[in-house]
Amino acid sequence: MSRTQNNRLADDLVRPLFNTSVWFYAIVVAAGTVVLSGAAAWAFQLWNGIGVAGIRWPVFWAFYLVNFVFWIGISHAGTLISAILRLVDAGWRRPVTRCAEVITVFALMIGAMFPIIHLGRPWLAFWLFPYPSAREIWPNFRSPLAWDFFAINTYLTGSVLFLFLPMIPDLALVRDRSTGWRRKVYGALSFGWRGTTTQWNRLESAMQIMAIAILPVAVSVHTIVSFDFSMANVPMWHSSIFGPYFVAGAIFSGIAALIIAMALLRKFLHLENYLLPMHFDNLGKLLLLMCVLWAYFVFNERLTVWYGNEPHEMAVFWATQRGRFAVPYWTMVICNFVIPFIILSIKPLRTILGCVVASFAVLIGMWLERFLIIVPGLSYKQLPYSWGDYGPRPVELIIMAATFAAMILLYTLFSKFVPIISIWELKAGDHSTPHAPAAPAHASLMASAPPEAGHS
Amino acid sequence: MSVYGLYDDPNVAQQAVNNLRAAGVADADITVISSEPFEHFEFGHRDAKTSMPWIAAAAGLIGLGLTYYLLAASQQAWPLVTSGMPIAPNWTNLIIIFEMTMLSAILVTVIMLIFTAFIGQRGKLYDSEVSDGYILVGVENPADAAKLEPALAIHGGRVKTV
User: Fold this and answer.
1) Among A141-145, A273-277, B79-83, B116-120, where is mean pLDDT lowest?
2) How many CB pairs (< 8 A) connect A and B?
3) B64 and B29 in a common domain
4) Which of A116, A136, A19, A246 is nearest to B79 (CA)?
5) Residues A305-336: pLDDT tens digits?
6) CATH says A3-121+141-431+440-447 is which class?
7) Whether residues B107 and B146 fall in one domain
8) How far is B44 from chain A (nearest CA, A)?
C-alpha cells in the first residue's frame, strides 16, 4: 500500500472521531431519552415493588428473562464470529471484526443487567457472588444461576480484552493525529504503543491465544444460559437439545444484529468503501446457514415432544401450535425461517437491503423464540391447577425498549471515540495478499502491494 | 542520540535493515517501527519467538487446579445438600472449573503481553510520521551515528538524527 493510500484509509476511518454530524446528536438525544425512561421505569418498579411487572404465579420468569436470553444471544455476534474468522484467517473479516466485537461487549453488559432487574431486591444481588457470606454459606455452586455468574463474567472479561487489545495500535494512530486533551487521552489509552516488531509479534500471538480460548467460552456461555432452563423439570425445558439449540440461535441472532449494525455504520459514517456488498453477501450466507440450522433444531425439538406424547408436554406443544401462543409461534417461524430463507437463498435478493430486511425479521423471530421457550412452559406446568397466564405490563415494555436504545446509544458513542473499523488490520490485509483478486473498494490498495523481492 | 531512516516501501525498509547488519549493528540494536505488521518481510519476524502460548497453557492448568481445590474445599467447609447430589459433585463443578481455566489463560496472556510488549520494551525511538505510513528503521545510541547514515540513506529514505 502506498503512503497516499495509507493516509486516505486512515483519514476515512478516523474522520468520524473529529467531525460530528447532526445525526450523532439526534441519535444520542433520542436514544438517551429512551434509556432515561427505562431508568425511570426501573426506579418505579424498585419503589413500588416487583408486583408492578406482569410476572406472577405461575409465570415467574417472563419479559426480563426473555430479554436476558435474547441479549446474551446477540452477544454471540462479535467475539465468537470474530474469533472463528481470525483463526481461519478469513481476509474479508478485517473490516467486520471490531463492529462485531463491540456488539458482544455491550450486549453482554445489557443482558447481564436483566437478572438484577428481575430481582425483587436487587441490592442483595451480591448474594449470588462467590464469597463466604454472613449467612455462613457459600452460594450453591450446583445452581445454574451461579454458573451464569462465572460464565458471563468470563466471557465479558475475555470479550472486553479481545476488543481492546487490537484497538491499541489504532488508538496510537489517533493519538498521533490529535492535539490537546485528545492527544493525552488517546496517548494514555494506547499505553505508549510505538509499533515495534516485537510489539506487533506479541500482539498477534496474544490475539491468536485469546481467539482459541474465547471460542469454547462463547459456546459455553449460551449453553450455560440454556441450563437455566433445561435443568428445571418444566414441560419442554428439560431437554438435552437445549445447549446446541441455544448456541445456534445465539449465533443466528448475533449475525443478524451484526448485519444491521454494519448497514447503519455504512450509511451514517459513510463507510461505503470499506463495508462492501461482499461483506454483506458473506454474512448473508452465514445467516442462511444458521437459518437452516435453526429450523433443523426446532424440528428436532418439536418432533421428539410430539412423538413422546407426554400429556404435560403436549399441553405446551398444542398451546404454541394452535392455542393461545400460536400467533407468536407462527410469526416466529415466518420471521426466522420463511423470510430469511427466501431472501438469502436467492442471490439477486441477497443485497445489502435484502440482508438487512432478513436480519430484522430474524431479530423479531429470535426474540419471539426466547419468549416461546420461557412463557408457555411456565404457563402449562405438570398439574392443571398451576396453569396460568402472563401479559407484560408497561414497566416491562419500557425497560425492554430502553435496552434497545441503550445498545444504539453505546454503539453510537463508541463509534464516535474509537475507529469502528480496525485500521491496521485493514492495511495489513492489503499487503498480506498481494496477488489476491481485488475487492472493488480495495482495488487500488491491492494493486500497490509490494513485489515479491524482499519478502522473506 | 538516535539515527533512523523513514521509508514508505517495506522492500526498502528491509534493505535498510540488511545494510545496518552489514555495517556491524547487532540485530537486537536495530529498531523497526511501523503502523502495521509486515508478516511477509523478514524484518517483521525479528523477535517473533515467544513462549506466550506455553505460559498461557500453564496458567490454564494452574487455574484448573486451583478452582478444583477451592470449589471442593469450600463445598466441604459449607456442605449444602441438594437433591441427593454429592457434597462436591464433579459434574457441576466442571462447569465452573472450565470457565476459570479459560479465564486464567486469557488473563495471563494479557499480563504477558503487557510485560513483553509494553513494560519490557527497550528504547524510546519514535516518529509520529510512522502513523502516516512510514516505516522507521534506526539505531538508538549508536557508537558512530555518522557511519550509519549511508546505510540508511537509500532509495529516497529520509535520514534523521535526534
Assistant:
1) B79-83
2) 196
3) no
4) A136
5) 999 999 999 999 999 999 999 999 999 999 99
6) mainly alpha
7) no
8) 6
